[in-house]
Write a structure and sequence with these properties.
The chain is α/β, with parallel strands linked by helices. The chain is about 30% helix and about 25% strand. The strands form two sheets. It has a six-stranded mixed beta sheet, sandwiched between helices. A three-stranded antiparallel beta sheet has the order 2-1-4, covered by helices on one side. Helix 3 packs across helix 4. The protein is globular and about 45 Å long. It starts with 5 loop residues before the first strand and ends in a 15-residue tail after the last strand. About 35% of the residues are buried.
Length: about 220
Protein backbone atom coordinates (compact mmCIF):
# COMPACT_ATOMS: atom_id res chain seq x y z
CA UNK A 1 0.00 0.00 0.00
CA UNK A 2 1.22 3.49 -0.87
CA UNK A 3 2.86 5.47 1.95
CA UNK A 4 0.34 8.25 1.35
CA UNK A 5 -2.26 5.96 2.97
CA UNK A 6 -0.37 5.79 6.29
CA UNK A 7 -2.19 7.81 8.97
CA UNK A 8 -0.02 6.92 11.96
CA UNK A 9 3.38 5.23 12.13
CA UNK A 10 4.83 3.59 15.26
CA UNK A 11 8.52 2.71 15.38
CA UNK A 12 10.44 0.92 18.15
CA UNK A 13 7.84 1.75 20.80
CA UNK A 14 8.56 0.52 24.29
CA UNK A 15 7.00 1.37 27.65
CA UNK A 16 8.48 0.65 31.05
CA UNK A 17 6.95 1.46 34.42
CA UNK A 18 8.33 0.71 37.88
CA UNK A 19 10.92 -1.68 36.50
CA UNK A 20 8.35 -3.61 34.42
CA UNK A 21 8.28 -3.84 30.64
CA UNK A 22 4.74 -3.17 29.48
CA UNK A 23 5.47 -2.84 25.75
CA UNK A 24 8.59 -3.71 23.77
CA UNK A 25 9.59 -3.38 20.11
CA UNK A 26 6.25 -2.23 18.74
CA UNK A 27 6.43 -1.38 15.02
CA UNK A 28 3.39 -0.96 12.81
CA UNK A 29 1.51 1.48 10.62
CA UNK A 30 -2.15 2.38 10.77
CA UNK A 31 -3.39 2.91 7.24
CA UNK A 32 -6.41 4.77 5.98
CA UNK A 33 -9.36 2.38 5.84
CA UNK A 34 -7.90 -0.17 8.25
CA UNK A 35 -10.19 -1.90 10.73
CA UNK A 36 -7.72 -3.17 13.30
CA UNK A 37 -9.06 -5.61 15.90
CA UNK A 38 -6.75 -5.86 18.92
CA UNK A 39 -6.82 -8.58 21.53
CA UNK A 40 -4.44 -10.10 24.06
CA UNK A 41 -4.25 -11.04 27.73
CA UNK A 42 -5.16 -8.67 30.54
CA UNK A 43 -2.09 -6.67 31.46
CA UNK A 44 -0.53 -7.27 28.06
CA UNK A 45 -0.41 -3.56 27.21
CA UNK A 46 -3.42 -3.10 24.89
CA UNK A 47 -4.81 0.02 26.56
CA UNK A 48 -1.32 1.46 27.07
CA UNK A 49 -0.69 1.10 23.33
CA UNK A 50 -3.93 2.92 22.50
CA UNK A 51 -3.04 5.72 24.91
CA UNK A 52 0.40 6.08 23.26
CA UNK A 53 -1.22 6.27 19.82
CA UNK A 54 -3.60 8.96 21.10
CA UNK A 55 -0.78 10.99 22.64
CA UNK A 56 -2.14 10.48 26.17
CA UNK A 57 0.91 8.50 27.27
CA UNK A 58 4.56 9.04 26.38
CA UNK A 59 6.51 5.90 25.40
CA UNK A 60 9.83 5.16 27.06
CA UNK A 61 11.45 4.81 23.64
CA UNK A 62 10.37 5.13 20.03
CA UNK A 63 8.28 7.53 18.00
CA UNK A 64 4.68 7.97 16.93
CA UNK A 65 4.47 10.05 13.76
CA UNK A 66 1.68 11.39 11.59
CA UNK A 67 3.08 11.47 8.04
CA UNK A 68 0.29 13.68 6.71
CA UNK A 69 -0.55 15.72 9.78
CA UNK A 70 -2.71 15.10 12.83
CA UNK A 71 -5.73 12.86 12.45
CA UNK A 72 -9.17 13.75 13.81
CA UNK A 73 -9.95 11.12 16.40
CA UNK A 74 -12.90 9.86 18.42
CA UNK A 75 -12.04 7.88 21.55
CA UNK A 76 -14.13 5.60 23.74
CA UNK A 77 -11.96 4.74 26.77
CA UNK A 78 -12.20 1.42 28.56
CA UNK A 79 -13.26 3.00 31.84
CA UNK A 80 -15.16 6.23 31.85
CA UNK A 81 -13.57 9.10 33.72
CA UNK A 82 -16.78 11.03 34.26
CA UNK A 83 -17.83 11.58 37.86
CA UNK A 84 -21.49 10.56 37.89
CA UNK A 85 -22.14 13.29 40.46
CA UNK A 86 -21.05 15.96 37.99
CA UNK A 87 -24.09 18.02 36.91
CA UNK A 88 -24.08 17.30 33.19
CA UNK A 89 -26.79 15.89 30.96
CA UNK A 90 -26.57 13.06 28.46
CA UNK A 91 -26.93 15.51 25.57
CA UNK A 92 -24.09 17.63 26.96
CA UNK A 93 -21.81 14.59 27.21
CA UNK A 94 -22.48 13.67 23.58
CA UNK A 95 -22.12 17.30 22.40
CA UNK A 96 -18.74 17.57 24.16
CA UNK A 97 -17.29 15.52 21.29
CA UNK A 98 -17.63 18.66 19.16
CA UNK A 99 -15.58 20.92 21.43
CA UNK A 100 -13.08 23.05 19.56
CA UNK A 101 -14.67 22.54 16.16
CA UNK A 102 -16.29 25.98 16.06
CA UNK A 103 -19.59 24.79 14.63
CA UNK A 104 -22.71 26.96 14.71
CA UNK A 105 -24.98 26.19 17.64
CA UNK A 106 -27.75 24.95 15.37
CA UNK A 107 -25.41 22.44 13.72
CA UNK A 108 -24.17 21.24 17.12
CA UNK A 109 -27.77 20.66 18.18
CA UNK A 110 -28.58 18.82 14.95
CA UNK A 111 -25.56 16.52 15.25
CA UNK A 112 -26.32 15.91 18.93
CA UNK A 113 -29.90 14.93 18.12
CA UNK A 114 -28.81 12.57 15.32
CA UNK A 115 -26.13 10.96 17.48
CA UNK A 116 -28.46 10.49 20.46
CA UNK A 117 -30.73 8.57 18.11
CA UNK A 118 -27.82 6.49 16.83
CA UNK A 119 -26.88 5.33 20.35
CA UNK A 120 -30.50 4.94 21.49
CA UNK A 121 -30.54 7.73 24.05
CA UNK A 122 -33.01 10.22 22.58
CA UNK A 123 -35.41 9.72 25.48
CA UNK A 124 -32.61 10.31 27.99
CA UNK A 125 -31.15 13.48 26.43
CA UNK A 126 -32.04 15.81 29.30
CA UNK A 127 -31.32 13.40 32.12
CA UNK A 128 -28.38 13.83 34.44
CA UNK A 129 -25.67 11.23 33.93
CA UNK A 130 -26.01 10.38 37.62
CA UNK A 131 -29.26 8.49 36.96
CA UNK A 132 -27.93 6.40 34.08
CA UNK A 133 -27.09 2.72 34.21
CA UNK A 134 -23.54 1.69 33.34
CA UNK A 135 -24.65 0.64 29.88
CA UNK A 136 -26.47 3.91 29.21
CA UNK A 137 -23.41 5.90 30.25
CA UNK A 138 -21.27 3.74 27.96
CA UNK A 139 -23.64 4.58 25.10
CA UNK A 140 -23.39 8.30 25.89
CA UNK A 141 -19.59 8.06 25.74
CA UNK A 142 -19.87 6.13 22.48
CA UNK A 143 -21.95 9.01 21.13
CA UNK A 144 -19.28 11.49 22.21
CA UNK A 145 -16.68 9.48 20.26
CA UNK A 146 -18.86 9.30 17.13
CA UNK A 147 -20.44 12.73 16.89
CA UNK A 148 -17.63 14.49 15.02
CA UNK A 149 -17.38 11.80 12.30
CA UNK A 150 -13.65 11.37 13.04
CA UNK A 151 -11.10 9.99 10.57
CA UNK A 152 -9.94 7.54 13.26
CA UNK A 153 -12.21 5.88 15.81
CA UNK A 154 -10.53 4.24 18.80
CA UNK A 155 -12.76 1.93 20.85
CA UNK A 156 -11.40 0.28 24.00
CA UNK A 157 -13.79 -2.50 25.08
CA UNK A 158 -16.92 -0.83 23.64
CA UNK A 159 -19.13 -3.70 24.81
CA UNK A 160 -18.40 -3.06 28.49
CA UNK A 161 -21.61 -2.74 30.53
CA UNK A 162 -23.96 -2.72 27.54
CA UNK A 163 -26.84 -5.19 27.34
CA UNK A 164 -27.10 -7.85 24.64
CA UNK A 165 -29.60 -5.85 22.59
CA UNK A 166 -27.30 -2.85 22.28
CA UNK A 167 -24.28 -5.12 21.84
CA UNK A 168 -25.77 -6.22 18.52
CA UNK A 169 -26.46 -2.57 17.65
CA UNK A 170 -22.79 -1.78 18.26
CA UNK A 171 -21.77 -4.57 15.89
CA UNK A 172 -24.02 -3.10 13.18
CA UNK A 173 -22.83 0.42 13.90
CA UNK A 174 -19.15 -0.53 13.75
CA UNK A 175 -19.68 -2.46 10.52
CA UNK A 176 -21.32 0.62 8.99
CA UNK A 177 -18.63 2.99 10.25
CA UNK A 178 -15.86 0.77 8.88
CA UNK A 179 -16.93 1.66 5.35
CA UNK A 180 -15.59 5.21 5.70
CA UNK A 181 -13.68 5.37 9.03
CA UNK A 182 -10.37 3.91 10.18
CA UNK A 183 -11.04 1.88 13.34
CA UNK A 184 -8.90 0.55 16.17
CA UNK A 185 -10.96 -1.69 18.42
CA UNK A 186 -9.89 -3.58 21.52
CA UNK A 187 -12.24 -6.31 22.67
CA UNK A 188 -12.30 -9.74 24.30
CA UNK A 189 -15.43 -10.50 22.24
CA UNK A 190 -13.69 -11.24 18.95
CA UNK A 191 -15.97 -13.82 17.36
CA UNK A 192 -18.15 -11.27 15.56
CA UNK A 193 -15.63 -8.44 15.31
CA UNK A 194 -12.92 -10.57 13.73
CA UNK A 195 -15.14 -11.18 10.74
CA UNK A 196 -15.42 -7.41 10.14
CA UNK A 197 -11.80 -6.46 10.79
CA UNK A 198 -9.19 -6.21 8.05
CA UNK A 199 -6.25 -6.69 10.42
CA UNK A 200 -5.88 -8.60 13.69
CA UNK A 201 -3.23 -7.81 16.30
CA UNK A 202 -2.33 -9.65 19.48
CA UNK A 203 -0.67 -7.43 22.07
CA UNK A 204 1.14 -9.34 24.79
CA UNK A 205 3.90 -6.87 25.62
CA UNK A 206 5.03 -7.34 22.00
CA UNK A 207 2.95 -7.23 18.83
CA UNK A 208 1.96 -10.16 16.65
CA UNK A 209 -0.11 -9.63 13.52
CA UNK A 210 -2.46 -12.58 13.44
CA UNK A 211 -3.87 -14.32 10.41
CA UNK A 212 -6.27 -16.52 12.37
CA UNK A 213 -9.87 -15.49 13.03
CA UNK A 214 -9.96 -17.30 16.37
CA UNK A 215 -7.48 -15.30 18.50
CA UNK A 216 -7.39 -17.96 21.18
CA UNK A 217 -3.80 -19.15 21.21
CA UNK A 218 -0.56 -17.81 19.80
CA UNK A 219 0.26 -20.93 17.80
CA UNK A 220 -2.69 -20.12 15.51
CA UNK A 221 -0.96 -16.97 14.37
CA UNK A 222 1.86 -16.28 11.97
CA UNK A 223 4.10 -13.38 12.85
CA UNK A 224 4.28 -10.59 10.34
Amino acid sequence: MDSKDILISLRDISLRRDGRTILEGIDFDIRRGDFVAITGPNGGGKTSLLRIILGLLRPSTGQVTFPHGRVSTGYLPQKNMIDSRFPITVAEVVRSGLLGMGLPRAEEERLTSVTLGTVGLTDHADKSIGVLSGGQLQRALMGRALISSPELLVLDEPLSYVDKQFEHRIYSLVEELARHTTILLVSHEMSTISGMATRHLIIDHTLTECHSHHHRIHCECDEG
